[in-house]
Amino acid sequence: MGEVKRTGYLAAYDVSDTSRRQRIWQRVQAYAAELGQRSAHVIWLTPAERRALLAVVVELLDGDEDQFLLLRLDAHSTPLLRGRAVGAAHDVPSVYRFD
């Protein structure tokens, strides 16, 4: 059986409660290509992992106070770069780390 393909996503969140924010961060960073910013990470998910992550996040979020965005990255796009960009650890040409 072949390996399931992972898709790149940008996961970003604004969670007001420190405890909820920490629990969401722990779930998201488990899939992160690199640690990235405090509340925005490039992550790689299979379809099953995406469903599982979203199910956990929905349970953790407070719908009145918190926000979560999971944006699928287009591997065929040319990135618009600012600053000093360095290729990501996974050698994916459309994902860059800024130092």
TrEMBL record:
Show the SUPFAM superfamilies listed in the entry. TTP0101/SSO1404-like
- In Pfam terms, one family for this protein is CRISPR_Cas2
Q: What is its EC number?
A: 3.1.-.-
Enzyme class, broadest EC rank: hydrolase
InterPro entries per UniProt: CRISPR_associated_Cas2 (IPR021127), Virulence_VapD/CRISPR_Cas2 (IPR019199)
GO terms for biological process? defense response to virus; maintenance of CRISPR repeat elements
**Per its UniProt record, what Gene3D superfamilies does this chain match?**
3.30.70.240
List ligand-binding residues for Mg(2+).
14
Q: What are the entry keywords?
A: Antiviral defense, Endonuclease, Hydrolase, Magnesium, Metal-binding, Nuclease
MF terms from GO for this chain are:
hydrolase activity; metal ion binding; RNA endonuclease activity
Which cofactors is this protein said to need? Mg(2+)
CDD domains, per database record: Cas2_I_II_III
Coiled-coil annotation reads: none
Keyword match Aminoacyl-tRNA synthetase: no
Assembly behavior:
Homodimer, forms a heterotetramer with a Cas1 homodimer.
Its annotated function is as follows: CRISPR (clustered regularly interspaced short palindromic repeat), is an adaptive immune system that provides protection against mobile genetic elements (viruses, transposable elements and conjugative plasmids). CRISPR clusters contain sequences complementary to antecedent mobile elements and target invading nucleic acids. CRISPR clusters are transcribed and processed into CRISPR RNA (crRNA). Functions as a ssRNA-specific endoribonuclease. Involved in the integration of spacer DNA into the CRISPR cassette.
Family statement: Belongs to the CRISPR-associated endoribonuclease Cas2 protein family.
Q: What is this protein called?
A: CRISPR-associated endoribonuclease Cas2
Show the taxonomic lineage: Bacteria, Pseudomonadati, Pseudomonadota, Betaproteobacteria, Neisseriales
Q: What gene name does this entry carry?
A: cas2
